[in-house]
């Protein structure tokens, strides 16, 4: 210890429950690999239900790695401009693999077209539409694509006519302000009262934009294969859009601590890490070695790991989870002592596996296996 764990009994429940949430609207679910970063878990999700088809990855090298591991049908979630990666992906496309590159400006089209022409292939591309909403005094969403209006989307679609070795095969819009923002996060304070209203208004705003851009692409007879939307927190709203063909889900499989703060769903805590008690600084207090795996994004209490088991663990306000030690007060019912393990949940899903070489697989309360993460396979993409 410290070590990372994954309870596959809870993971399987999450896989089933997420599939059920998407049921009824003829959508498939694309697995967001950035939230998993373990090929064992990716395979397990894919094999559990036919609704899971394909992956969304976060870098060109990761896409090539997944291809080397026997996976296919990969959509890059972000643009890449590394020429060697694009070249190798075009070669993989020529060899029959399905990898779709993400674009949001003509510079991307120019670069990929020139490399695809060199390889002698037509490379599939997907346009990333920005799903943020601008309200008076509020930018509700994240800063992703420059395609913020229907007009801008149409202009980029029109530019495809000037290139010979690229094909417009997909449209993606990630509504982060709905998919990744809980309504009950104590770190948000009074904002929690406003977030549901902003979400409702934003859904009406961006769904209309997405529909119009998709209709325009189809009117120009592009070979549109996928219209990708959403995330774990927006399944219910994303599936209502008839023009959407698939929904991306990632964090819900592990259900990290940040996903305790949604009103419309609750999944099981299927992954986390264990840190070992190494000393007792004073009565009622204990200290673990390590534990300071702070999540990315705006810093705050909601980005630190959350004690999970045993119940009754309270982090100290002065140190919280630390780089080399994590002190805590304990008032739980179980007897604990030096050498025992405290289980924590990471605030976010994907960053857990960046910290550990292995996931210890738990079933029925026992460790039954140990499998490598991306890091354990010698891979570090971002």
Short description:
This protein has helices spanning 8-21, 39-48, 60-68, 83-94, 106-119, 150-159, 176-179, 191-219, 235-238, 251-254, and strands at 3-7, 28-32, 52-57, 74-76, 99-103, 123-128, 133-135, 138-140, 166-173, 226-229, 246-249, 271-282, 285-289, 306-309, 313-315, 325-330, 341-345, 358-363, 366-372.
Shape: globular
Examine the secondary-structure arrangement and name the CATH architecture of the largest domain.
Alpha-Beta Barrel
**Uncertain residue ranges:** none
For this structure, the CATH topology of the largest domain is: TIM Barrel
The count of β-strands is 19
Order of helices and strands: EHEHEHEHEHEEEHEHHEHEHEEEEEEEE
What is the arithmetic mean of pLDDT? 94
The termini sit apart by 25 Å
The name of the CATH superfamily of the largest domain reads Alanine racemase
Number of helices: 10
């Amino acid at each position: 210890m410290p070590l990372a764990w994954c309870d596959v009994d809870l993971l399987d429940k999450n896989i089933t429950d997420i599939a059920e949430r998407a049921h009824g609207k003829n959508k498939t679910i694309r697995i967001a690999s950035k939230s998993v970063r373990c090929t064992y878990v990716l395979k397990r999700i894919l094999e559990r239900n036919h609704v899971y088809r394909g992956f969304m990855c976060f870098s060109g090298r990761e896409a090539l790695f997944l291809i080397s591991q026997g996976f296919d049908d990969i959509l890059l979630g972000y643009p890449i401009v590394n020429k060697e990666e694009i070249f190798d992906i075009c070669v993989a496309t020529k060899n029959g693999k399905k990898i779709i590159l993400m674009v949001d400006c003509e510079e991307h089209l120019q670069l990929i077209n020139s490399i695809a022409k060199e390889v002698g292939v037509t490379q599939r591309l997907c346009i990333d539409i920005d799903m943020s909403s601008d309200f008076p005094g509020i930018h509700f969403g994240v800063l992703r694509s420059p395609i913020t209006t229907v007009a801008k989307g149409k202009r980029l679609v029109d530019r495809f006519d000037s290139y010979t070795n690229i094909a417009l095969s997909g449209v993606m819009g990630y509504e982060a302000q709905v998919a990744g923002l809980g309504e009950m996060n104590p770190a948000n304070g009074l904002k929690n009262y406003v977030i549901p209203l902003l979400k409702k208004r934003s859904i009406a705003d961006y769904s209309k934009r997405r529909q119009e851009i998709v209709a325009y692409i189809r009117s120009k007879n592009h070979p549109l294969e996928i219209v990708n939307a959403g995330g774990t927190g927006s399944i219910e709203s994303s599936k209502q859009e008839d023009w959407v063909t698939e929904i991306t889900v990632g964090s819900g499989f592990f259900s990290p601590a940040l996903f305790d703060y949604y009103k419309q769903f609750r999944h099981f805590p299927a992954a986390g890490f264990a840190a070992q008690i190494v000393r007792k600084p004073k009565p009622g207090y204990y200290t673990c070695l390590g534990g300071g795996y702070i999540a990315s994004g705006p810093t705050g209490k909601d980005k630190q790991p959350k004690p999970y088991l045993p119940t009754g663990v309270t982090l100290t306000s002065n140190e919280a989870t630390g780089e080399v030690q994590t002190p805590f007060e304990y008032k739980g019912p179980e007897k604990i002592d030096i050498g025992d393990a405290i289980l924590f949940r990471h605030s976010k899903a994907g960053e857990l596996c960046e910290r550990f070489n292995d996931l210890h697989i738990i079933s029925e309360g026992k460790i039954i296996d140990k499998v490598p993460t991306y890091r354990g396979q010698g891979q570090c993409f971002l």
